[in-house]
């Protein structure tokens, strides 16, 4: 997207005082381009990942193992967003954390580009760590560009910023996916590294346009806290090194010794965080009630993301093996399916925003609970749709590409109903004590959902079987109906939040 830089009449000395980016502070252009290139690298690699894991010219793993690795990887990205935010708040400040994160992500993609299975998992780990560091902090810096929550440009600024996410996500499978599938897998991963490199250069060159607050460490660690944190980190790292060295030397090491602990952490940590907040005696009665209501939304969201994120694993592996990936006789790479969601988001998000405004003026806008439950029902419906191409494939035929497009379309509509509402309700229902942490808690719903998918795959459950797909679809629909049926109870717990 070409930047629109125009003269502005803002008071000199403020961010973007001389020029603007679509009417917003000029620093938004820096963050927009950084996020666009980072998402380009992330979604490009993610589109290739399950296909490379099962390909004969890749790692040639089983579909179940590939799904488990993919799910663990995605759950880790969202799990690490919480410590990533902590680093920005307590150690480096948002600006330095994002710069370091970009370097780590680029190094991770370069490691993936090496033609060695031994370094592949290290590359995945580096990309997950870097993505976790970047995810929370770059959004924080967008907020710094505006004069507090009442700045009328603030919501529009985040909308422009999220367009960068979807532009990167749309282009990545078309470019990185095509090169990776058609030319060379590792060249595709190298292109992802190039994308992150461009984003990092853009960030470093344009950081002078960012607000000064982005370089500030809001709550720096004291000397005692630094010492204690380093001791704990060294202790756990030492335990891990000793344990895995012993496993390797004894000949008992398998991939599951990594996958199982990580998937269990992805389920246990979200539960522990919610329990800790819920049992905090410093919360007043109203905050406790809101947290009780929030748990309903959290569990429902975990079910949603468990199914939704299989669009990049279960559906992609099915398309690779059992779909006729052609349109009017023209074939296309399997990874291109991953561009369907972002292009639909860009097309439909403005429509949804207009519809909600129009209904609100008439007093007919659906409530938060109705939108949330509808999103769950739709993601369940998408997997009921999935039963059709599965049945076609079981009959020995190739399923038409439009079946998969219909599934992605249904999931995208569900996402537009649930995801923005989930973000909004998280900020509205957050206890004052945990206001800055609750967005990380929301991301843990994604972690829990993907970790559950990982556990099922590790346990040997074939997620491309009609019985399992029907069960998952039914679970989502039942969860959506349950949220709707108990809407009065949830509304009462929500207090003054609507």
From TrEMBL:
Similarity section: Belongs to the major facilitator superfamily. Proton-dependent oligopeptide transporter (POT/PTR) (TC 2.A.17) family.
Annotated protein name in UniProt: Amino acid transporter
Record bears the keyword ATP-binding: no
Subcellular localization, as worded in the UniProt entry: Cell membrane; Membrane
Keyword entries, A-Z: Cell membrane, Membrane, Transmembrane, Transmembrane helix, Transport
Name of one Pfam family that matches: PTR2
Organism: Streptomyces caelestis
GO molecular function: dipeptide transmembrane transporter activity; peptide:proton symporter activity; tripeptide transmembrane transporter activity
Record-annotated membrane-spanning stretches: 43-62, 68-86, 98-114, 120-138, 159-179, 185-205, 257-277, 289-308, 336-357, 369-388, 400-418, 439-461, 467-486
One of the GO biological process terms: tripeptide transmembrane transport
NCBIfam families in UniProt: yjdL_sub1_fam
Membrane-topology annotation of the record: Multi-pass membrane protein
GO CC terms, sorted: plasma membrane
């Amino acid at each position: 997207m070409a930047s629109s830089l125009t003269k502005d009449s803002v008071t000199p000395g403020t961010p973007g005082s001389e020029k603007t980016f679509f009417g917003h502070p000029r620093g938004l252009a820096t963050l927009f381009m950084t996020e666009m290139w980072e998402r380009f690298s992330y979604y490009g690699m993610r589109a290739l990942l399950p296909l490379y894991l099962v390909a004969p010219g890749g790692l040639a793993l089983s579909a179940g193992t590939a799904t488990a690795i993919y799910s663990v990887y995605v759950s880790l990205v969202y799990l690490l967003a919480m410590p990533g935010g902590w680093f920005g708040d307590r150690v480096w400040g948002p600006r330095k954390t994002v710069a370091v994160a970009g370097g780590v992500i680029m190094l991770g993609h370069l490691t993936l580009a090496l033609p060695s299975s031994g370094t592949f998992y290290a590359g995945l780990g580096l990309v997950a760590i870097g993505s976790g560091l970047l995810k929370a902090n770059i959004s924080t810096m967008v907020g710094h560009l505006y004069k507090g929550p009442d700045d009328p440009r603030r919501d529009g600024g985040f909308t422009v910023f999220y367009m960068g996410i979807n532009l990167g996500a749309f282009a990545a499978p078309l470019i990185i996916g095509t090169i990776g599938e058609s030319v060379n897998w590792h060249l595709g991963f190298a292109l992802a590294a190039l994308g992150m490199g461009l984003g990092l250069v853009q960030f470093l060159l344009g950081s002078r346009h960012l607000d000064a607050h982005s370089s500030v460490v809001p709550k720096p660690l004291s000397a005692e806290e630094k010492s204690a944190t380093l001791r704990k980190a060294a202790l756990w790292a030492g335990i891990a090194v000793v344990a895995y060295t012993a496993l390797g030397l004894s000949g008992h090491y398998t991939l599951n010794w990594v996958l199982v602990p990580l998937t269990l952490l992805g389920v246990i940590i979200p539960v522990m965080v919610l329990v800790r907040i819920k049992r905090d005696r410093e919360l007043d009665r109203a905050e406790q009630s809101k947290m009780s209501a929030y748990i309903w939304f959290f569990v429902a969201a975990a079910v949603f993301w468990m199914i939704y994120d299989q669009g990049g694993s279960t559906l992609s592996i099915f398309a690779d093996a059992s779909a006729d990936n052609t349109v009017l006789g023209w074939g296309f790479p399997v990874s291109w399916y991953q561009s369907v969601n972002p292009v639909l988001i860009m097309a439909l998000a403005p429509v949804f925003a207009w519809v909600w405004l129009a209904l609100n003026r008439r007093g007919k806008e659906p409530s938060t609970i109705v939108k949330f439950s509808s999103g769950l029902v739709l993601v369940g419906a998408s997997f009921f749709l999935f039963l059709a191409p599965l049945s076609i494939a079981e009959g020995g035929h190739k399923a038409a590409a439009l079946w998969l497009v219909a599934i992605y379309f249904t999931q995208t509509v569900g996402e537009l109903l649930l995801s923005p509402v989930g973000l909004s309700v998280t900020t509205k229902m957050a206890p004052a004590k945990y206001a800055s942490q609750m967005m990380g808690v929301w991301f843990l719903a994604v972690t829990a959902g993907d970790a559950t998918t990982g556990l099922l795959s590790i346990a040997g459950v074939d997620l491309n079987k009609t019985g399992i797909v029907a069960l998952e679809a039914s679970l989502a629909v039942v969860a959506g109906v349950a949220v709707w049926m108990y809407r009065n109870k949830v509304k009462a717990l929500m207090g003054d939040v609507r």
